[in-house]
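Quick check before the chapter quiz. The format below is the same one you will see on the exam, so make sure you can read both the input and the output lines.
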Amino acid sequence: MKNKTFLELISLEKPILADGAMGTVLHERGVSFDSCFDELNLTDPRVVGDVHREYIEAGAQIILTNTFGANAYKLGKHGLAEHLKEINTAGVELARRTVLASFKDVLIAGDVGPLGVRLAPFGRVLPEEAQRIFSEQVKALLDAEVDLLIFETMTDLYEIREAIQAVKALSPDIPIVASMTFTRDDRTLLGDNPRKVAKDLISFGADVIGINCSGGPNQIQRILKEMRHTLPDGKFWVKPNAGWPEQMGGRIFYPASADYFGEYARSFWKAGANVIGGCCGTTPEHIAAMRKSLDSTQTMKPNGITIQSPDFPDEEIAQVKPTRLSQKLSKKKFVIAVEMDPPRGLSMHKLLAGASLMADAGADVIDVADSPMARMRMSPWAVCSLIQRKAKIETVLHFPTRGRNLLRVQGDLLAAHALNVRNIFVVMGDPTSIGDYPDAMDDFDLAPSGLVKLIKQGFNTGVDHSGTDIGQPTSFFAGCALNLTAPDPQRELNVLRRKIKGGADFVLTQPIYSMEPLDAFKSLFEDTYGPFPIPILVGILPLVSDRHAAFLEQEVPGIHIPETIHEHMRSAGADGAVEGIRIATDLISELKNRAQGIYLMPAFNRFDYAAEIIETCKDS
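Here is the expected output.
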């Protein structure tokens, strides 16, 4: 490490370890949060020096000066603005003396925090004034000869741009780390997503992109992965908090232990971090655990061949992790989906009981319809969210285009994703003329094929219908409808082709009662376009009586029941439901070699019948 610059060090094959929190440790040693930590460089240098020394002994290769709040605005609140140069200079000299006394090669980073005021257009401070204030502190740190500058815990891209420009005007060659902090929704306080932050920081002139403070290691790693996906060749600095702070008995506690940070040290490097350290709540113990973890691992660069270590937490970006339905279909597993209707009123008890029964029986996913037969019911994304949380089974949200303009379509999609409902079944929907409110608006801006395209080629790439950035990509898994007995098969084929080209991931069909409609349509598709490209879940609607079969045949468009089935149901008499279950299970047995799943629609909410069918299928 000796004589190597910061930028040379972060290009080596091992990650560089930075220090942990300064304020947390000072507070533990009796310094009030109401006091000026930066003034301690002058009034109590021993306590600051002890913190630096302990971090160096723990294995830190970079220590940050105790100057986080040493700008004119923040020092002015303590009546110390005229001592700005003196405090910053003392901070660097104190760090340097500690490094020299350690006889170790440790770099000194001049630490600069946010100004503590809002810049225009969100506040009254003009950009040029902010740059002037940053210049005062930066010049003091540069004159004291820091090895690099770190702007940390920044929330405003406008502000950090002025900070970087202040450095470029004074010393273009000094390495700059620009580090932002994020809220619980993985955005900055002003709403910028990690992809935008990464791109902007590099365009402003930062050498290293930083993520600090925010939540614990889990969140920081998630953001790191998204940034590295955006800038695969970038250099990254991470210093997470020790989890989200908790207040107990008037004191603030951070839950993440030193051992937990030790595990994440290797995981951060695997995810592409070049510098790793700790922020609020971390102590020399956390840094020592990270040092031990890194030293015990034979590590190669993230784009190298291997990392010879046990598997440690390596969560995917939450928003892009595949749904369980997606994973099962991609693994060619036979999937069982069960349809449920939302309640007409507020009570969810019966529906949740049914969903729990389906989950216990072995269903893979619950499909929640949206205003079936155009009748007023609870909004389905709320039902999906409740089922997922209380019945612990994934859902598919039915999403009709009818009755929704572009504003509502996109707002409803965002609402669903925010509730972690990410399997979407796109359908036209029933006309309002047949339902509770026949005079209600029935217009729509998008056909189902257009909505599939909006979801897969728009929202899932991070933009809305107009091309405007929505902050981060969604991760919807989108299905579409198919009528296997359509009166115009060629038209149905062409419509399905448009949906598949738009990005549809799977198909749900209307109910069938023989293999003929499925075989005929698949042959038509394959003769025209080649092998069927996406999974098909075939509709199964168990019959309960001969009258039920007659109703479906005569009054429900798209359903054809062979005469042999009618005969079976008539012969069954009072045992019609038993016969309907037998017919359904026989159909499913035949489907296992022709489709990748079933879309089970329990008639009259007879989920006990559905459970029997599912259990029989699972056993066969």
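If your answer matched, good. The longest strand covers residues 148-154.
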